[in-house]
Amino acid sequence: MRFLSTRGDAPAVGLSAAIAAGLAPDGGLYVPAAFPRADLDAIAPDATLPEIAAWLLRPWFAGDPLAAHLDAICREALAFDTPLRPLPWDDTYLLELFHGPTAAFKDVGARFLAACMRRLRAPSDPPLTILVATSGDTGAAVGAAFHRLPGFRVVILYPDGRVSPRQAHQLGCFGDNVHAFRVAGSFDDCQRMVKTALGDTDLQARTPLSSANSISLGRLLPQMSYYAQAALRLHAEHGVAPDFVVPTGNLGNALACVWARTMGLPIGKVHLACNANAVLPDFLAGADYAPRASVATLANAMDVGAPSNAERLRWMFDDDFIRAQFTAQSVDDVAIRDTVRALAAEHDLVVCPHTATALHVLARLRDADPSRLRVAVATAHPAKFEGVIEPLIGRSVPVPSTLDHLLRRVAHAEPLPADDDALREVLLDSVR
Ligand SMILES: *Cc1c(COP(=O)(O)O)cnc(C)c1O
């Protein structure tokens, strides 16, 4: 399969090249030249997640050197559960994506990317540095996925004081080949520093760099598999295609749901649940698409003012079609708090602030029409955000063993000015 750039000014490439590059040379995002269709007769509704991923991704890998490794990559990357739990209302479910090593759905994409990239590396290649700017969850998932992987080094930049204490601990706890820097600036500063470094050809010649942000195909593709698994199972049980409500920031997770639907999976409507950063809700309500500076909210991993994957969605469909097919709603911090509190008190259901946006939107949709089959997506474990959640619910949140394991390690992060040259120095230091 061939991949094109959304900006139309870069040569078509194969899958391995698209995964290795991240961004296309014209600054666009890689998209498939043609959408493959899934052969629904060739999979059982009760197949495992790695089996479903390999079945779904087979046509995407066709003709690529990684095709021979696809089964092994899926088994290695998707070695944890993504359970579908019934919610206390009729025909509604919660798809839990936080049972991986760092307790957020980012583990799926990061582990798949690492499984692909380590197979793309030749033993004679110089060490590759993976640069990540993170607002909290991505850095930890990428750190965990590449930790102690020979030939790779990870450099994580996060905005000092703007991630939760447990997120900060996770980012700094790996050590070895994973280096965490707390930047005296915002997430936007971190992102700018990464972009500048990636575009610095002199620097790249001295120490090769790559990135692992949410525009990477290697992260996007495997995220289709848990939607496929949930959709196949629910369709078999209920005879209708479920709608999904997805907590949304950079639109990577929701776009994977849209791509799975485009491949022919039984998926109904896709609803985007955003926090107070309302670029997508405003656009879907008819305004021009207008990226803007982000505002800080309780759902910090969704504090995005310019959703990077919007470029892929708008390349696939025209604006009117997008407005007809998808809905997006903004959920403010007051509603996030109310939702967390009410679910814990009334249903003994404890969720993270991101998941609360989806459950709030689910409640609004149910009020309007209770008859549809719906799935809300749970993107992180609430124990990652205990500082927000525990005061609201008045009790402590048990820490899952995976997270506990990381929290017991010693954590260390170096301070770094929000300055492009400071990052350049850090990256060159280790090769001198
Ligand atoms: C990253 C993240 C999101 C947003 O996902 P996108 O793919 O950027 O839309 C939502 N919730 C949590 C917990 C996250 O870490």
Automatic annotation (TrEMBL):
The keyword Glycosyltransferase does not apply. Pathway: Amino-acid biosynthesis; L-threonine biosynthesis; L-threonine from L-aspartate: step 5/5. GO terms for biological process: threonine biosynthetic process. It comes from the Bacteria. The modification N6-(pyridoxal phosphate)lysine is found at residue 106. Belongs to the threonine synthase family. This is Threonine synthase. It comes from Oleiagrimonas soli.
